[in-house]
Amino acid sequence: MKLSKIKYSRLMGLLLLVVVTTSCEREVSEDAVPATFPSNAEVFTDNPVGLTDEFFISFDPAVGANTNGFGTDQNEAYLGNTSIRVDVPAPNDSDGNFIGGIFRDRGEGRDLTGYDALTFWAKGSTTAVFEAGFGTDFIEDKYPVSNSNLQLSTDWKKYVLPIPDPSKLVQERGMFLFSAGTQSTNGMGYTIWIDEIKFESLGTVAQPRPRIQNGEEVVVQNFIGGTVNITGLTQTFNTVAQGDVTVNAAPAYFEFESSDVEVATVDENGLVNIIGAGISQITATLGGTEAQGSITIESLGDFTPAPTPTRDPENVISIFSDAYPNVTVDYYNGFFNADGQTTQGGTGPGGADLSVDGNGIINYTNLNFVGIGTFMNVPTIDASSMTHIHVDLNVNETLNAGDNIQLQLLNDVGGNETSATVTITSANLAQNEWRGFDIPLSDFNGLSSRSQIGLIFFISNSISNIYVDNIYYYNEQ
Fold first, then answer.
1. Which single residue of 44, 134, 265, 392 has CA 20 to 30 Å from 451?
2. Which helix (H) or strand (E) holds 372?
């Protein structure tokens, strides 16, 4: 079987510019037509069509992308003689544990307004799940579209990815995107063949049903200076060949509207900025169709942040703070639902549920217990040289005598595990006020070692709503 890399030599030439002038001043005709771009529909047939010199631009190897499994296969094709071949690596592959990237138009971009879908054919050496899309160009990435739940079969199958609103794509460079790992094959590597990638005007893409917030009516509380990202953006069409097809759609496809711009504004990227106290509902349309779902902002007014830490970063191991670089954290909420956890929160960007004036804050609600994990995908925390753990807490409800929050540390999770707990009582907490706690690690009796701390738990049977900020270990010099 012949597997060849696709690489094109850069074309060199002369650009001859002829300028004809008839006067010192140039008059612009009122009938001038705006420049248009090529509307070439083909992306890959037997060869790539109008793509980059390198053809395939990989995702960043620094995040685990394997750059060695992409090429062409001249012994396998849906039509013609050649297909794209993608060898999906095993999780333990030293060159990367997944493969993916984009095809970018090598010119100024293409006018895709006359098409309603990207289509392609694919087959696999086994059944699996993979992702495909378009609109990602690694330059602006303004109009990306993707479907991350495409089912691969061992026979050639046609896939249809509808364009949420073709009128937006007057100059698009992102022709194709794919990504594949072994999550659906229990770690077994496999091969994908892809052929006949093109944009089409099918005429059978109908019944648009856009959504924001996954179609739900969401209520979010935040403060003046806070920001909220609109998420769960999708567009669903009915297609004759494949029934309903849902794709993830970029915010730029949508037109957002705030019911009260004195409370909150929203930009083309779906970023809500809270500028005043009150209530505002954010809704959207896509291509003139009202999107299902909304996000209602309840602005609670001004917010007092936790004090900014001033300790020397050289003496700090930060888990969650904007004052220091944080270590890589597996999760800020492990969702131990099988063990009876009810806690919500810790799921925003970098764990931050709220962002106020650029400061991220975790908001745990329905708290009974919640774990912050640092033991799965990164080296565990070696706090052997640290003397204290710091955390800032703000209780968002009435405090009663006997209320408390327990802080528990676990070392060597799943191995020779040891753990210990320190209790913070209501006498040291405050309602709607930040309190900082610097707890000596020596107070965690029973924690025999701190060389592999993998879990931090917040536990309470009496307090259900807290803000958390500035979680870090430090060495008191």
1. 392
2. strand 369-373
Q: Which two tokens stand for residue 230?
A: 């609109």
Q: What is the pLDDT along the chain (477 residues), one digit of tens a residue?
A: 334 434 333 322 322 233 333 333 434 445 544 558 999 999 999 999 999 777 899 999 988 999 999 999 999 999 999 999 999 999 999 999 999 999 999 889 999 999 999 999 999 999 999 999 999 999 999 999 999 999 999 999 999 999 999 999 999 999 999 999 999 999 999 999 999 999 999 999 999 999 999 999 999 989 999 999 999 999 999 998 889 999 999 999 999 999 999 999 999 999 999 999 999 999 999 999 999 999 999 999 999 999 999 999 999 999 999 999 999 999 999 999 989 999 999 998 999 999 999 899 999 999 999 999 998 866 789 999 999 999 999 999 999 999 999 999 999 988 789 999 999 999 999 999 999 999 999 999 999 899 999 999 999 999 999 999 999 999 997
Instruction: Give the SS3 label for residue 407.
Output: strand
CA–CA separation, 321 vs 13, rounded Å?
A: 53
Burial of residue 218, with CB atoms counted within 10 A of its CB: 0-12 exposed, 13-18 middle, 19 or more buried: middle
Q: What is the CA radius of gyration of the chain?
A: 27
